[in-house]
Design a protein that fits this description.
Blueprint (H helix, E strand, L loop, with lengths): L4 E5 L4 E6 L11 H16 L5 E6 L24 H10 L3 H8 L4 E5 L2 E3 L1 H8 L2 E5 L3 E3 L13 H9 L1 H10 L2 E3 H6 L5 E3 L4 H13 L3 H14 L4 H15 L3 H11 L10
Parallel strand pairs: 2-3, 3-4, 4-6, 5-7, 6-9
Antiparallel strand pairs: 1-2, 7-8
Length: about 270
């Protein structure tokens, strides 16, 4: 079997992660794909040269979400035993949002083609989303008589707001790229042929900043999604105390005062 998640890193600090099952439009529910994606996230977080990552799909689709063939009775997603099926979700696809939550490296979803069901939720696990003009999104679980078993009911409202999330989840209807832009599901829509270049340009803008500050900012943003203000302030104070004692902070201040471009070392 070919590599399920292709990991490509460069000297510029930008890592590209490509879901690589184009013949099935890159489903993520199979245990092998879950393990491959989690391994790629762990490698990303441990990569000292990584500043930011771009997640995309090989072929014509970002991700088809769950493999419908595994949903028949006795399949990998529907074992026929509710206890084992529940365990399958907890040990399988539900590990993905937890894996993204633990990350310190920010991830940009470059959404090419369809992001359906768990594929839409995968895009929401990322920190930023850019769509090609042909991108389509659907929180479509209800169409199959299911709910978002991968954490979509937590993720989607935090991206698009309660009302739009409820509309998408309760109808299961498709949202095109322009509607996704209007509701904040993505921050930019570009011609399909410019998608990866646009995502890379955004990634380089992030990678140009001190790595420690980017990683801590990413963690603080995620913590702020669910923690009370007092907790976030305490965490911010601890992080800021660390940031003040870094070489990159000293360089940034010196460069500002000397009216020159900073040269960051990652320390």
């Amino acid at each position: 079997m070919s590599e399920l998640v292709i990991y490509e890193g460069g000297d510029d600090g930008v890592v590209t992660l490509t879901l690589n099952r184009p013949e099935l439009r890159n489903p993520i529910s199979d245990q092998e794909m879950v393990e491959a994606l989690l391994a790629a996230l762990a490698r990303l977080d441990g990569d000292s040269g990584a500043r930011v990552a771009i997640l995309t799909g090989a072929g014509k689709g970002f991700s088809s979400g769950g493999n419908v063939k595994d949903m028949v009775m006795g399949g990998a997603l529907n074992t026929g035993d509710p206890v084992n099926t529940r365990r399958g979700y907890k040990d399988g696809i539900q590990r993905l949002p937890l894996g993204f939550r633990k990350l310190e490296v920010p991830v940009i979803a470059a959404v090419n083609g369809a992001a359906i069901g768990a594929g839409c939720d995968l895009a929401c696990m990322c920190d930023l989303r850019i769509a090609g003009e042909s991108a389509r999104f659907a929180e479509s679980f209800v169409k199959l008589g299911l709910i978002a078993g991968d954490g979509g009911s937590w993720l989607l409202p935090r991206v698009v707001g309660w009302s739009k999330a409820a509309e998408m989840a309760l109808t299961g209807d498709m949202v095109d790229a322009q509607e996704a832009l209007a509701c904040g599901l993505v921050s930019k829509v570009v011609p399909d042929g410019e998608l990866m270049d646009t995502a890379r340009a955004l990634a380089l803008r992030i990678a140009a900043n001190p790595a420690h500050a980017v990683r801590m900012t990413r963690r603080l943003l995620w913590e702020s999604r669910e923690s009370p203000l007092e907790t976030v302030l305490e965490m911010a104070a601890a992080m800021q105390a660390s940031a003040h004692h870094t070489a990159d902070h000293a360089e940034a201040v010196a460069a500002f005062l000397e009216k020159r471009a900073p040269k960051f070392s990652g320390h």
